[in-house]
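Record format v2
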Amino acid sequence: MENLKYTEILQLNKALVGTLKSKPYEIGVLSNVTINSLKEVLEYSCRLNQIEPKVEIGNFDNIVQDSAVLKNKDLIIIFYDVLNIVDQVSDFFEDLEEEKYNNLKNKLFTEIDIILENLSKTASVIFNSFSSAYYNNNKVLVSKIDTFVKVLNSYVEQKKTSNVSIVNIDKLFAHIGFKQSIDYRFYHSSKAPYTFAFLKNYVSAIETVLLRNTGKLKKAIIFDCDNTLWKGVVGEDGMEGINMSPNSQSGKFYHLVQRIAIFLSKRGVIVCLCSKNNEQDVLDVLKNHKDMILREEHIVIKKINWVNKATNLREIASELNIGIDSLVFVDDSNFEINLIKEQIPEIITIQVPTAISDYPEVILKNVYTYFNLVLNSDDAKKTEMYKQQFVRENSKTAYSSIEDYLASLEIELTVVKNDKTHMSRVAQLTQKTNQFNLTTYRYTESQVNHFIDDKKHEVYAMFVKDKFGDNGLTGVCITKEDKKDSKNVIIDSFLMSCRIIGRNIEFVYVSHIIKDLANKGYQTLTADYIPTKKNAQVEDFYAKVGFTLIENIDGTNYYSLNIASFEPKKIDYIKIITELV
Amino acid sequence: MENTRIKQVMSAVFEVPVKFIVEDSSTDNIENWDSLRHLNLILALEEEFDVSIPDEEVGNLVNYKLIELIINDLVK
């Protein structure tokens, strides 16, 4: 997007208006400078990522008031620009009297407190760091404005709640170049300091927050081999002729990319290979090349064949049971990159740059944008789990009936309730799960925290184990008491990771929850199924459980269940263990 | 050549079809041409033609003819 002109963005964005049918993602922009041109750039970035945006720019220089008015948005972005803060007190900040300085500082502290308090329940907030780069005429001495900005930044850092992400504006200025970021002409005439170059880079910097909040992060990265994981072509240059040595001028960049791939596999990103080669040649390199650090154990699926890559990538997505838009594809060839862009535009493609020294940086920039890199204990085991999944798939055939097969798995569920130790994984699952997800509500960690604290909400988390291995926390259910009828309880969210579907676990899990809700004294239960592009497989889930369909409005099915007459399915091969906290 | 590109920029910024941008288009007859969009127009023209429009001209560019004049002058 950084390479598009503003006019092009306006045109492309306009062409996408109305193409997405989902519920709009509401973004509010609070600012003390003129920032209206951000709107279309931000909208375009959302639409490119299949997010239907609704952007509202708050009133000029009205951040505090707007933080109260717009607090129910899905995302709030705050531009609290030092330029206009300083302009309101002095035209020469360095000579500002001590008393005025302290007054200003205290005023800002108070404002920051109010803003953060108003937005403490907002799903997500982006706050730009304060910058003194505007006044940076001396690079050695510490000026008054430098100190002031430092004090403000550390205040925000210390006061911010967990839903607030901070954008490092100085890094962004450094990346674009200050002169390319700020246009004083329009600051002085219209209080609009930012150039299009700045706005485009800004939006690209916050893209990862948009993806995280809307569950659009990617799940797998697929590497080509020749000239992507090593320099050279193994089929032609042979084992000896390819290079990925950390000690070689050209090999070290490929070495570093392999390091990044390993780093990803440890964080639960699925690493795959897709290469046009003789399979044996590549397997040999993986196994025997002395400089190869990316090995069999890090790789979940290898498609090493002469079939076209679009077919291979489709197969990878279907074998992993993930959406085709969850893939990121890396290749050096123009042909392959364009083929994928054309055939499967939902896949993010990264082409190995011609200036090979840029390669690791290009990969890292994409990795930070598209993947979740927070290490949790489940992620570390994921590569192993995906591999076990294949063992399970393969042993399926040996049993005559699916029930026999399921019984042989020795499945064990552990359900915990309102347990804060798993908050981050619970939020992550609500954000990432698309297929077995009845309502697809996305929650941040701070929202989950709020549910756990709130007496009217219950947050159930399920762990799944079987004889092939431990799947970890893979099921979430959030319920809330009906505001109008305290005997009725509503299932707000019910979802399971795709790793564990097809084993009747959902029926045991939901029965267990219904039993727990009955024990709490609830008499009726209501639940909805909200259809999305990806969750058709759970369309009749509540009907199968025994709920009665009440009505269908705009595709959403509303169900109800009388708890007293509920009869759980007999599935005695799944054991359930409860840890009530 | 420049004329077509100017019209495309104006069309995108003011959200009107290209064919409505004509010789006598001005702030008087394009409804969306307000001060905020004027600013976007100047920045978009600068980006499109890789030129810098002098400060003193920014306020004067209130119709298509004047824009065409200055852009043709700057790209020479």
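The first strand of chain A starts at residue 25 and ends at 31.
Residues 98-118 of chain A form the longest helix (21 residues).
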